[in-house]
From TrEMBL, chain A:
This is Signal peptidase complex subunit 1. Belongs to the SPCS1 family. It is a multi-pass membrane protein. Keywords: Endoplasmic reticulum, Membrane, Transmembrane, Transmembrane helix.
From TrEMBL, chain B:
GO terms for biological process: protein targeting to ER; signal peptide processing. This is Signal peptidase complex subunit 3. It is a single-pass type II membrane protein. GO terms for cellular component: signal peptidase complex. Keywords: Endoplasmic reticulum, Membrane, Signal-anchor, Transmembrane, Transmembrane helix. The lineage of its organism: Eukaryota, Metazoa, Spiralia, Lophotrochozoa, Brachiopoda. Belongs to the SPCS3 family. It comes from the Eukaryota. It comes from Lingula anatina (Brachiopod). Essential component of the signal peptidase complex (SPC) which catalyzes the cleavage of N-terminal signal sequences from nascent proteins as they are translocated into the lumen of the endoplasmic reticulum. Essential for the SPC catalytic activity, possibly by stabilizing and positioning the active center of the complex close to the lumenal surface. It is found in: Endoplasmic reticulum membrane. The gene is LOC106169431.
Length: 113, 179
């Protein structure tokens, strides 16, 4: 897979493909709302025309729509990127490896907040 | 939710759960139907013969021949949770050797959307009316009734006895068998 990606042109490789945490939460909320809404409408419509297959088709439509809206990492799911700390100046690299190891956990803790 | 595949998996699983809930809801909307319908029946030609059933043994058993009229409108039973009805006509009677004898004489599958109004006159039975002895000759109390199994999309498989029956008697004499 990495080999294939490496063959792609630079412009394609630089396309952002991730969702931030808030975007993931929004994506999950969006597909839940869409599918439940389509299911409710489909149930009522299927009951009115007394065809359970209609209910299933409408639910299928909701499934396809929610796939289109939440499967690709659309830009709308990238609006709240995490405020990462700035990269440390390269002076750190010259220092001993022990100090780097000690600094790393502390840095991670800060990122999570 | 952080990769394409994990989102696809979550959406698919969620849709399946919703689908199961919908199916259960469909079952609930029809769970309390009684699936009943009125049936009227009559019999015409009644003959009983005493012939050997070679598929079972060489002994002679009673074999009844009847023709029947049948009127029933089963349209009211169909709804969005009924795929088809399996309708069958049974004769029930009592003999010395058995307290309860039940013989299926005729059946029919009615799918949803097909004509569900049964209106037959002088129909022949579809299956042989064999007794396992000599219980048919002169039997005064043979009850015809129409029953059906309801085959749903989801839920129970009710076995319903139609509202209406017909009692008839077989003649006292065998008709000579011409086989």
């Amino acid at each position: 897979m990495d080999f294939v990606i490496g063959m792609l042109p630079e412009s394609v490789r630089n396309l952002p493909t991730h969702m931030d945490f808030d975007g993931q939460r929004r994506a999950e909320r969006i597909f839940q709302i869409i599918i439940v809404l389509f299911a409710a409408v489909g149930f009522v419509w299927g009951y009115i025309c007394q065809q359970f297959s209609q209910t299933m088709y409408i639910l299928g439509a909701g499934f396809v729509l929610s796939c289109l809206l939440t499967l690709p990492p659309w830009p709308i799911y990238r609006r709240k990127p995490l405020p990462w700390q700035k990269a440390r100046p390269s002076v750190d690299e010259k220092e001993g490896s022990t100090s780097q190891a000690a600094a790393a956990p502390a840095g991670k803790g800060k990122k999570k907040k | 939710m952080n990769t394409f595949l994990s989102r696809a998996n979550t959406i698919f699983a969620f849709t399946l759960s919703v689908m199961a809930a919908l199916t259960f809801g469909c079952f609930l909307t029809t769970a309390f139907n009684d699936h009943l319908a009125p049936v009227t029946m009559n019999t015409a030609k009644l003959i009983v013969k005493n012939v050997p059933d070679y598929s079972a043994s060489r002994e002679k058993n009673d074999l009844g021949f009847i023709t029947f009229d049948l009127q029933a409108d089963l349209n009211s039973i169909f709804n969005w949770n009924v795929k088809l009805l399996f309708v069958y006509l049974t004769a029930e009677y009592q003999t010395k050797s058995n307290e309860v004898n039940q013989v299926v004489l005729w059946d029919k599958i009615i799918k949803r959307g097909e004509n569900a109004v049964l209106d037959y006159r002088s129909m022949n039975t579809k299956y042989y009316f064999w007794d396992d002895g000599n219980g048919l000759k002169g039997n005064k109390n043979v009850t015809l009734s129409l029953s059906w199994n309801v085959i749903p999309n989801a839920g129970t498989l009710p076995k319903i006895k139609g509202d209406g029956r017909h009692v008839f008697a077989f003649p006292e004499e065998y008709q000579s068998s011409k086989f």
